Amino acid sequence: MLKEYHIGIDDTDSHEGMCTTYLATLIVDSLENHGVEFLDFPKLVRLNPNIPYKTRGNGAVSISFISTTHKIEEIWKECINLVKIHSDIKAENTDPGLVLQIGKPDPRTKKVYYEALYTVISLKSMKQILNNNFQGLYYSIKEGRGLIGACAAIGANLYSDYTYEFIGYRDPSIKTSIRMIDEKSVIKADQSNPLSFGNYDYVQNQLMITPHGPDPVYVGIRGETAKSVIQMWNEIKIQENIATVMLFRSNQHTQPHFPKEFTGKDIKPYYSVKVRGVVDSAPYLITGGHVIVSIVSNGKTINCAAYEPTKKFRKLVRELITGDELMVYGGVRPASDEYPITINLEQFEIIKLQQQIARIPLKCPHCEGALKSVGQNQGFRCKKCKYQIDKKEIGFQFKKRGLYSGVRYVIPTCAQRHLTKPTSRDDNLQFHLPSEESFHKEFHDFLKNRENLLKHPLI
Ligand code: ATP
Fold this sequence. Notes:
Helix content is 21%, strand content 28%. The chain contains 9 helices and 25 strands. The strands form 5 sheets. Strands 1, 2, 3, 4, 5, 6, 7, 8, 11 and 12 form a 10-stranded mixed beta sheet that branches. The chain is elongated, with a radius of gyration of 26 Å. Adenosine-5'-triphosphate is lined by residues 10-11, 13, 19-20, 47-48, 51, 53-59, 95, 116, 119-121, 145-146, 148-149.
């Protein structure tokens, strides 16, 4: 008899090595050997980016397929073995979780996904779900915290917006932080593939597709369509051996982690929040080059921070003035001895700009020198040429602001997190395929062509 199954997996890697997506790739290989019918691409979901337990990007993976029921016991055993062999369980914070859902995803997994995107879920509540009429099996090592991400990945809804990530892996025994790659070929390929994004940061002149850790990911190429990321991969010149490749469908860069509006009074540590508020004082710079702006929301004043790595974004934050109404988006950093509870800004949107009034003339009409008031209600004098302007000659006009209502101001590519939606994606939904059948067919096409994608280095 044929049946639908979903496998979820999370928390298998550490800062010293391994990668949950690589392990998921090995599971796909094992399932392929068992002749299953894949229903979709494997799903790479990113969850709340502010979770303290995360290793890097808080990612989890699920794989959906149809199999004959008599094979599932063996498949499950193989998955457990792969988790045992390829998880870095010696690392203190690695707590692998593996879940097998039999039949369609339990509606509770959908709720877990929704909440895992922006809140903090307790392991106890997760186990209550898995131990209470859950149609499936689960396996965990140590604390088993990975069960949360594994369940969330099974329940992930990637239909309204989604992206793709093509990953080329090196041999996992290689632990160097450097990836040898021809940077110019990446820039060239990026410019000829508009549907692949985030490959290169042209402001910081930085390659974005190569990670810097000891994990097996050689490159991760992201884009709107499966075709665009494969095309990009085909065009770049690699300088290392590739062990295997995989193509994931993902919630990356779709910004699903701000589903709910919070007020200043109900934000909680580690949550991802969007908060509407009014700027209550001029933004200021603190040690380290970080910019702080405070807003009042529901009667509570909240600090919002644009950190140094957000580079030019800080300039935009400094353009804000008292009275500007905005929606801020970011992660909640708990209060410390030094700082109050703070929203780490990922983006802001202007709801209403405060009008700013400027004096005219602003500078001396003769020599452009700075003007100085000669006293209250008494006109101005040029500091340089001493030209005097009478009070009656002074006028006022609205000052042009460097910000616009309705615009999303997002942190730059080099500082973006996996879920951040770059402004370049604002119009791209039209490229998405309409039905589940397309994912099924496209993934099978990818598997058929996979061998041809194992490129050899051009050294
Ligand atoms: P990588 O991105 O390299 O795969 P990671 O950054 O995903 O690593 P994990 O090792 O998976 O980090 O650790 C994240 C842990 O947090 C997992 O155990 C996951 O189940 C758990 N987790 C994820 N989201 C939530 C959430 N919203 N609430 C509670 N726990 C969560």
